[in-house]
Amino acid sequence: MSEPMTERPQDRVPSGVRGLDLVLHGGFLRRGVYMLQGRPGAGKTILANQVCFHHAAQGGRVLYATLLAETHERLIFNLQPLSFFDTSRIPEQISYLSAFSILEEGGLKGLVEVLRREVRARKATLLVVDGLVTVQESAETKKDFKKFIHELQIHANFAGCTILLLTSASAEPVGPEHTMVDGVLELTDNRLGRRAERELEVKKFRGSSYLRGGHAFQITGDGIVVLPRIEALLQEPSREDPCKSERVSTGIAQLDRMMSGGLPCASSSVLFGPTGAGKTTFGLQFLDKSSKSEPGLLFGFYETPSRIFLKARALGLDLEKKHAQGFFDIQWHPPTERILDGLGNKLLEAVRVRGVKRLFIDGVDGFMQSAAHPERISHFLAALTNELRVLGVTTVYTSELQDMFSSEVRLPISGVSSLVENIFFLRFVELRSQLYRMLSVVKVRDSDYDSSLREFRITSRGIELADTFQSAESILTGDAKVAGSSRPKRKGLLKKRSR
Question: In 3D, which of 83, 395, 89 has the Cα closest to residue 225?
């Protein structure tokens, strides 16, 4: 018998499953034996068939052997609604073989012989055995079961065939089958309070690196979509940091002057403030500077596009015109049962496709509410922010403070100072039974800035900043007091208002 052909480690069999090849760093290794395990309903059969139809579309040939009670007619009936299913591939490129009776009559040895014969006869380059648990139950000893898998490995190596073995989750942490195969992928459906989230984890993958840990996935009309964890996918940014020295206008002339020309290019900023303080208004003025050279995107969670355009018109901003010109776009994702990594991937995809340079994320809290594991959020935001930075995107986030008036400020994001270059506070202040809005620049990394507290008003021309208000104290507590015994000097917008 001739020696098997030596193949390079990078020879792959792409899965064709969106996101999975990213996790596997390119797909399954050719001639490998891989186990897909999970409880009934986890998605194993859909995943395997999705791989099969993609493999056939690339010119490969598939043998799908079932050891289950479900008939092939029922299996195909359940697959037909999925977009990847193509009946024209059956049986020329994809053959379904019912092997349950073969196992009952001939045992493990008889099953191996039939699989070998059918793979050769059909020139299959991908073999799927659906129902490995049935083989395990039929084996008299663990040694017999291991021998079965070993013989499949030998055949896969000489025939140039990649093998997928589908089985229920093992009762043992590490069963004999785990030690024999080249890789183990586990699919789970986890209950998180009243919601549930599907997760895929690569437990083992010989001969290649891969993205470790759990990755959310969804079963859609297109089949399975894997959503790699952002902090795993972007452990390092995708390119070098451009590190430009240019400034980007905030859209508020007075604020640009306070910051020596505006926001540092490709930086990230966060606006902290209570509800109604003007955070969204700030972001809309920032986006009003969108242009052909600086396309803008609003990625929001709470206000629909129609309400955003209505608000913009009230501020004298013509974002609808910029939207019609293709300079500006809105993506609205109501914070219902969203998957955190799905949001992150959609955001990055939109940024890359549209070449976005001005990004306003209205409500970082929407990410936090979508996180099945809240402890992830700081790592998620760090990876997301780093990638946006190297893509040359100037980003403004908003984050809501729970207390409208308080001497203490509790930040909702842990370690925020290390995540962003610029921090702004928007506060309400009471003085002489009158409410005022105040803005303060708390941080601009590696740059000088005017740290004065400024009152601002929201007008039909947008945000207008006043001069420094120096005649009151305890402003940031929300309950300002007149300094000394003199009445406060009202400068700029802090003049007596008509009633």
Answer: 83
The residues, any chain, with a CB within 8 Å of residue 175's CB and separated by 6 or more, are: none
Structural fold of domain 247-482: Rossmann fold (3.40.50)
Round to whole Å and give the CA distance between 18 and 38. 19
pLDDT score of 66 = 94
Amino acid 435: pLDDT: 82
Distance CA 178, CA 210 (A): 17
Q: What is the largest CA-CA distance in the chain?
A: 103
Q: How many degrees, rounded to 5, is the angle at CA 460 between CA 458 and CA 466?
A: 40
Domain 12-228 identical in fold to domain 247-482: yes
* Positions of the chain with pLDDT lower than 50, given as ranges: 1-7, 9, 485-499
Q: Which of 458, 454, 423 is nearest to 312 (CA)?
A: 458
Each residue of 165-200: b (16+ CB within 10 Å) or e?
Answer: bbbbebeeeebbbbebbbbbbbbbeeeeeeeebbbb
Q: Where are the domains of the chain?
A: 12-228, 247-482
- Residue 171's pLDDT is 54
User: What's the CA gap between 89 and 215, in Å, rounded?
Assistant: 31
> Of 415, 440, 306, 303, which is closest to residue 360 (Cα–Cα)?
303
Q: What is the DSSP letter of 479?
A: B
Evaluate whether the domain defined by 12-228 bears CATH number 3.40.50.300.
yes
Predicted local distance difference test score (pLDDT) of residue 484: 56
